UniProtKB/TrEMBL annotation:
Its main location: membrane. It comes from the Bacteria. The lineage of its organism: Bacteria, Bacillati, Bacillota, Clostridia, Lachnospirales. It is a multi-pass membrane protein. Pfam families: Na_Ala_symp. The keyword Transmembrane helix applies. It comes from Blautia caecimuris. It is found in: Cell membrane. This is AGCS family alanine or glycine:cation symporter. The chain crosses the membrane at residues 17-38, 144-166, 178-198, 210-230, 305-324, 350-373, 393-411, 417-437. InterPro entries: Na/Ala_symport (IPR001463). Signal peptide: none annotated. Keywords: Cell membrane, Membrane, Symport, Transmembrane, Transmembrane helix, Transport.
């Protein structure tokens, strides 16, 4: 009976993450790129804005605090193991398609964050609330669909945001540091409790310090490894571009599986990594101190740039150059992204495994914090403020037991919920695209202009 249920859930997962979902997300990325006048051209300005404080504007945390909270959840194990999975199953060409989703995904992240700020509300105790659920309710009068989004995202947080991430931490600590998984679960749960009971300000405060460190450390480590592999960088880039469109073989046992396989796994892993279109990051964006929706939307869009255009690309280049330089890595029998990534980083003595361990631990823990905030906001939307304490308690319990339970089914269910929550979010983005265009035209050339529309105060 149990095996039948597992098989059914696996089939549902394949269906919801099939080509139709990939085309829906990538299609939205391209559509919003056109509608916003290729907003990606403003990425330099957006990066500068992300480190600019706007204390006089209304909001709970700084623009940078909101960005790092969002980055905490998007820069996760998918940036390391997920890219490895794409290369293992789709060939080196998958790195190209993963990167492309980041370039076009910037427009969708900008759009969903804009409407999150545009339609945000304030509770009587001064907390900012926003996201797809409020955009659907206040912008489209579709509260029922907002409730569905909040329900799916709230439950997805236990799996994709907590259990699978803590399990990844426990696995890497056991294999490399010989620490018992049960102890890891207890420590991570305790550290998580200390942060999330402080609310968004506490989470943002930790993320502001942790995210820049972990990203800079990982990127620097990748740069050093690429320096050691410098003679294979140009051949790797040529191989990635060539095998993105044609099947064939390359040095180191790398095999291109054709454009369809490269696109399928590259795009899927890219979308999963940067979360553009899923509706998660805008929940954090809605809490930002910002003068107008466009200003924060630009800041939020840099999350996809850093996550996929930079970090995923760096991981992909490290993997491909290391494999090409070390033919001893037998690609013919590897289908697990985690195994491939571990083997590739192990080719660099001492430094490689150290970068991998620190990267996975910090990336995974930051994801636990970021998704805790997303889950809280969604639970509060459909269950009220009374649901916050029970949610936090359950979240911490899940973190504690995650290392000692089998997570295959949990991961699959969370994967399904993750895909399904994208649908109502994309409905909001597409149906409110005229609003997005109007707001963009209104503020894009005067980002210091203050939005005088009062934020609605709700009794919740």
């Amino acid at each position: 009976m149990f095996d039948t249920i597992v098989n059914v859930i696996n089939q549902i997962d394949k269906m919801v993450w099939g080509w139709w979902m990939i085309l829906l997300l990538l299609g939205t990325h391209i559509f919003m790129t056109v509608r916003t006048g290729f907003i990606q051209r403003k990425i330099g300005k957006a990066i500068r804005l992300s480190v600019t404080k706007d204390p006089d504007a209304e909001g709970e945390v700084s623009q940078f605090g909101a960005l790092t909270t969002a980055l905490a959840s998007t820069i996760g194990t998918g940036n390391i193991i997920g890219v490895g999975t794409a290369v293992a199953l789709g060939g080196p060409g998958a790195v190209f398609w993963c990167w492309i989703t980041g370039v076009f995904g910037i427009a969708t992240k900008y759009s969903e964050s804009l409407i999150a700020v545009k339609y945000r509300v304030k509770t009587k105790d001064g907390r900012m609330q926003g996201g797809a659920m409020y955009a659907l309710e206040r912008g489209l009068n579709m509260k029922w669909l907002g409730m569905i989004f909040a329900f799916l995202a709230g439950f997805a947080s236990f799996g994709i945001g907590c259990a699978t991430q803590v399990n990844a931490i426990a696995t890497v600590c056991e294999e490399n540091l010989h620490i018992a998984p049960a102890l890891v679960g207890i420590v991570v749960a305790a550290l998580t409790a200390l942060v999330i009971f402080g609310g968004i300000r506490s989470i943002a405060n930790v993320c502001e310090k942790l995210v820049p460190f972990m990203a800079a450390f990982y990127i620097l480590g990748c740069v050093i490894i690429l320096g050691l592999n410098f003679d294979f960088i140009i051949p790797a880039i040529k191989t990635i571009c060539r095998l993105a469109f044609t099947p064939g073989a390359a040095a180191g046992g790398l095999v291109g599986r054709g454009i369809m396989m490269a696109m399928q796994y590259g795009i899927a892993r890219g979308l999963f990594s940067n979360e553009s279109g899923l509706g998660s990051a805008p929940i954090a964006a809605a809490a930002a101190q910002t003068r107008n929706p466009v200003r924060q939307a630009l800041v939020s869009s840099t999350g996809t740039f850093w996550d996929t255009v930079v970090v995923c690309l760096m991981t992909g280049l490290v993997l491909v150059t290391s494999i090409m330089k070390n033919p001893s890595i037998d690609m013919s029998n590897i289908t697990d992204g985690g195994i491939l990534t571990t083997l590739a980083f192990q080719q660099i003595p001492v430094l490689g495994p150290f970068i991998l361990v620190v990267g996975i631990i910090s990336f995974a823990y930051s994801t636990v914090l970021g998704w805790a905030y997303y889950g809280e906001r969604c639970v509060e939307y459909f269950a009220g403020k009374a649901g916050l304490i029970p949610y936090r308690v359950v979240y911490i319990i899940v973190a504690a037991v995650a290392p000692v339970v089998s997570l295959n089914l949990v991961w699959t269910v969370a994967d399904i919920l993750n895909a399904l929550m994208a649908i109502p979010n994309l409905v909001a983005v597409l149906l409110l695209s005229n609003v997005i265009v109007k707001e963009t035209k209104k503020y894009i050339n005067d980002l210091d202009k203050k939005d005088d529309t009062p934020v609605e105060v709700i009794d919740r």
